[in-house]
Amino acid sequence: MNNMRDKFVKGMKDQFTKSMSKFVIKSGEVALEKCCLGTFYEPSIPLDLLKKS
Question: Which of 1, 13, 36, 50 is the most exposed place for a label (fewest CB within 10 A)?
Fold first, then answer.
């Protein structure tokens, strides 16, 4: 009886670990994309402001 329960618990732990790792990988990719997009963003500066300085 304990052996079946231990196998069930181990299976549940493995499934939980796999699903959490997939979630972390996907959220990390999204965060990296946002970070890269924010880094390469250059606002357009009107030429009038550039000529004044």
Answer: 1
